[in-house]
Backbone:
């Protein structure tokens, strides 16, 4: 009987502890996600202007950096070095839902270097088309906090050739 009473008391104390312990932090700011060290695919340097280099090599449809973290409002300067065997570009769109319409429309936009004029409202920034061996530079102001996909719109590469710019406060 004494044992049961003690167990009850212990339970009440545990419940009371969780009920009355204040939340830690409390500022309402979600912590930034952790990024794996090994990926080597992001930049977190915060200066007024951040310059990064993105490279594509060989026949793979990919960017050497597929995740960029940058501060909203700063100028991000991307040097895109195309060491691959094909042409590529970098097109930054407003949201995930823009990838497909921009990618599909680009298939009929050869005359404008694969930038579809009718979908410009979905595009935030874009580079020149980089032919094999070319380096192109793309500069833009990092948009408000959020996630912005970037894709290659050359010849249906958009289905695989993607990255994400994560704008943080
Ligand atoms: Cu491409």
Residues:
């Amino acid at each position: 009987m004494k044992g049961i009473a003690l167990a009850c008391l212990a339970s009440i104390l545990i419940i009371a502890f969780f009920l009355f312990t204040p939340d830690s932090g409390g500022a309402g700011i979600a912590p930034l996600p952790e990024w794996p060290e090994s990926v080597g695919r992001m930049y977190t340097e915060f200066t007024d202007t951040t310059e990064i280099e993105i490279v594509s090599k060989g026949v793979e449809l990919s960017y050497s950096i597929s995740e960029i973290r940058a501060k909203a409002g700063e100028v991000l300067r991307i040097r895109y070095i195309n060491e691959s065997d094909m042409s590529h570009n970098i097109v930054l769109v407003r949201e995930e839902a823009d990838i497909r319409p921009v990618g599909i429309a680009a298939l009929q936009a050869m005359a404008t270097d694969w930038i579809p004029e009718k979908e410009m409202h979905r595009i935030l920034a874009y580079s020149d088309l980089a032919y094999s061996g070319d380096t192109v530079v793309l500069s833009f102001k990092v948009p408000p906090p959020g996630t912005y996909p970037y894709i290659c719109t050359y010849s249906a590469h958009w289905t695989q050739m993607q990255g994400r710019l994560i704008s943080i406060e």
About this structure: The domain at 41-168 is CATH 2.60.40.420 (Immunoglobulin-like). DSSP finds two helices and eight strands in the chain. The CA atoms of residues 75 and 140 lie 6 Å apart.
